[in-house]
Structure formats: structure tokens, C-alpha cells
Design goal:
The protein is an all-alpha fold and 308 residues long. The chain has one domain: Growth Hormone, Chain: A (Up-down Bundle). It is built from 12 helices and no strands. The chain has helices at residues 2-25, 31-60, 62-82, 104-118, 126-156, 161-177, 179-189, 192-208, 215-231, 235-243, 249-277, 282-300. Helix 1 (2-25) packs antiparallel against helix 2 (31-60) and helix 5 runs antiparallel to helix 12 (282-300). The longest helix is centred in the middle third of the chain and has 31 residues, at 126-156. The relative contact order is 0.16.
Length: 308
């Protein structure tokens, strides 16, 4: 559990840092394509990893998969330090920095500072930011649920580890195909044309997954999920950077990711309880209404933030 927590922290820091760096380096009209590329390449690794890990686990044992992951991390860390240090210089602070970390007054001060950060957003865009935060929350919920519950469901159906890994690889292939189209849609057509379908399609997949019991059926559904995940590449992050001012960009982005990470932590816990009690297919049905609500809010309340 300690190792899993450390890996989760490292992944969050990496994801957050690459988005900030990408926004600092990219022009406004290229934000979607830059973030789509970042998330797309990341998803390629997520697609190939399960398949390669499944093969290593079957042939050499589970330790071989972890050793391979460690080797990849050892290569990526020096590359990260060698990159260009991006960041806006000398931005003024917003609100007083609270003193202390453990007193009730400190907690109240931090909440007030968070409110002051939120007020930096234009009034007509604040509801859009809240919807984006909720959509990111549901996005993390559906992703971690798929990653944690699908192997259990596939095992119940009698699939081998390599077959389960191949399902994730099929999904990743469709994510890869969608990298360029998603970036074009985000930058040229509209942010909502990417974010709304990428939230609605997973809801449909989650409803149909419990009724699929063959490899072909699951492969088709995972292909649709890959298309949805491909459309989502950077769409919510790009919309967030459109909404929040540069002066509070990092902190409000951190708030959005923190709320999302709460969903990423709680969803597997509740999903595991539901899987133990009712079966591994039940969490998909339980979480699907959240995705429907998220898609509706993005379509109805969220504003289109693409400047034409």
C-alpha cells in the first residue's frame, strides 16, 4: 500500500507538471493539440503496459513486470530534469498566505484563500469551472474503475492475464488514433465538442459492460472507450486554462486535480466493496449515472471557451 501511494503521488505530480509546462510553452490556439499530445503519449504507455506486463507475468512472474516498470522510470527521470524549465515569472500573490498548518484558524484561513482564488475567475465563467471540476472527478472515477474492475470481471469470465492486457491495448490503440483528431477538435471546432462526448460515451459503455461476456464484445466496448478517452485528451485541462486567469492558474488547476484524485481514491474502494458483495460488474452500473450527469452539465451549463 505504501508503494501504491508513492506511485500515485508521483503520477499526480508528473501529470500536473507536464500540463503547466505545456500551457506555458504553447500558444493559445495550440493548447488543445499540445495537451492532447501529452495525454495521448501517456495513454500509449498505459495501453502497452498491461499487455507487456501480462506477458511478463505469465512467462517470468509478477516481479518481472515491476522491474520493467522501474527500468522505465529510471530512464524517464533524467529526461524530465533535462527539459526546459517553463513558468511565468514574478506573478503577484493572491490573498494572504496563512501562517501555521495545524490550528483551526489556519484551516479557516486556507479556505478563505481558496475562496479568494475562485473569485479571480470571471463571474460568468465560475459555474463553468465548477462543472469542469465535477467532470474531471467523474473522469477519474470511470478510468480507475475500468482499470481496477475490468480485470476482476475478465478473470470471472475466464480470461487469461494476456487477454485482459490485450483489451487495454485495444483501447489504447484507439486513444492513439484519436490524438491528432482530438487536438484539432479542441483547437478548431470547440472544447465542448470534445468534452461532452468523451463523458457521455463512457456512460454507455459502463451500462453495456455487465451484459458482455465474450472477448469480442468487450473488445468492441473497449474500442468505444478508447475513442472517448481519445476525445478527452486535454479537453478538460484546456478548458480549465481558458477559464482561470494566469495569476491563479497553478493553484486552481491543483484544486481541480485534488478533487479528481479524491474520486480516484474513493471509487476503487467503493467499487471493491460492491464487487465483493454483488459482483465485479455492479460498479459499472452504479457509476454510470455520474457520467450521464457530468455530460449533461457540460452540455447545458458549461460555456464554450474556445476563442474564435
Amino acid at each position: 500500500m505504501v508503494l501504491a501511494a508513492a506511485m500515485g503521488i508521483a503520477d499526480s505530480l508528473w501529470t500536473f507538471g507536464r500540463e503547466i509546462a505545456g500551457i506555458d510553452l504553447a500558444r493559445h490556439d495550440q493548447r488543445g493539440r499540445v495537451l492532447s499530445g501529452f495525454h495521448g503519449v501517456h495513454n500509449i504507455g498505459l495501453a502497452l503496459g498491461p499487455f507487456v506486463g501480462g506477458l511478463l507475468a505469465e512467462t517470468m512472474g509478477f516481479r518481472a513486470a515491476f522491474l520493467a516498470y522501474g527500468a522505465c522510470a529510471a530512464i524517464s527521470v533524467p529526461l524530465g530534469f533535462s527539459g526546459y524549465e517553463a513558468g511565468p515569472a514574478h506573478l503577484p500573490k493572491v490573498g494572504p498566505e496563512p501562517a501555521g498548518h495545524s490550528t483551526p484558524v489556519s484551516l479557516v484561513a486556507r479556505l478563505r484563500q481558496l475562496a479568494s482564488l475562485f473569485k479571480q475567475i470571471q463571474p460568468d465563467l465560475r459555474s463553468t469551472y465548477m462543472v469542469i471540476v465535477f467532470a474531471t472527478f467523474t473522469s477519474f472515477v470511470h478510468r480507475v474503475t475500468l482499470q481496477s474492475m475490468l480485470p476482476l470481471y475478465a478473470s470471472e469470465l475466464g480470461f487469461t492475464p494476456s487477454q485482459t492486457g490485450l483489451l487495454f491495448t485495444i483501447m489504447g490503440m484507439f486513444v492513439f488514433v484519436m490524438i491528432l483528431p482530438a487536438g484539432f477538435v479542441i483547437d478548431k471546432v470547440g472544447r465542448k465538442w470534445s468534452s461532452v462526448p468523451s463523458t457521455g460515451i463512457p456512460a454507455i459503455v459502463f451500462v453495456l459492460l455487465p451484459f458482455s461476456n465474450t472477448f469480442l464484445e468487450l473488445a468492441v466496448l473497449l474500442s468505444l472507450m478508447g475513442v472517448a478517452n481519445g476525445l478527452s485528451l486535454g479537453s478538460l485541462a484546456t478548458s480549465t486554462y481558458d477559464v482561470v486567469p494566469a495569476i491563479v492558474r497553478g493553484r486552481l488547476q491543483a484544486v481541480r486535480r485534488t478533487v479528481a484524485e479524491v474520486g480516484g481514491v474513493c471509487a476503487p474502494l467503493l467499487g471493491g466493496f460492491l464487487a465483493d458483495t454483488f459482483g465485479p460488474e455492479v460498479p459499472f452500473l452504479i457509476y454510470s449515472p455520474l457520467l450521464v450527469l457530468s455530460a449533461v452539465l457540460l452540455a447545458v451549463i458549461g460555456r464554450e471557451t474556445l476563442k474564435r
